[in-house]
Amino acid sequence: MNNIRKGDMVKVIAGNDRGKRGEVHSVDPKNGRVVVAGVNLVKKHQKRTGDVRTQAGIIEREGPIDLSQVMIVCKSCGKPTRVGFTFEGGKKSRKCKKCGQFID
Ligand SMILES: [Zn+2]
Questions:
Q1: Is-contact 83 73, C-beta < 8 A?
Q2: Residues with Cβ within 5 Å of ion ligand 1?
Q3: For residue 46, what are the contacts with CB-CB under 8 A and spacing of at least 6?
Q4: Using only C-alpha atoms, what is the Rg of the chain?
Q5: pLDDT value of residue 2
Q6: Which domains does the chain have, with CATH numbers?
């Protein structure tokens, strides 16, 4: 069950970037990976391509981390939390297990 979606605020709970918070840029449910803004920055060497929009040199960009390394941060109580699911009006909604408020 994948309960983290693009645009969610998450906290990193394991690895080098433990304690960092950021917005989810993309989720790869198939591989169980997630890309979070400002987390797991990887240096990449960018060669000059002749395209003025391409910055040559070393650029940093986010690399994917494991979904198990992040926890969603509840907008209501501001705490990293586990997510519960409820069905209301035939729609599945996510709920914070700490304060009981809806996340969606
Ligand atoms: Zn909450």
A1: no
A2: 74, 76-77, 96, 98-99
A3: 54, 55, 56, 57, 58, 59
A4: 17
A5: 60
A6: 1-73 (2.30.30.30), 76-104 (no CATH)
Which amino acid, residue 51?
D
Cα 40 to ligand 1 centre (Å): 26
Q: Which residue has the tokens 């926890």?
A: 71
pLDDT tens, residue by residue, 57-89: 888 999 999 999 999 999 999 999 999 998 888
How far does the centroid of ligand 1 lie from the alpha carbon of residue 8, in Å? 13
For CA atoms 3, 7, 8, 9, the dihedral sign is: positive
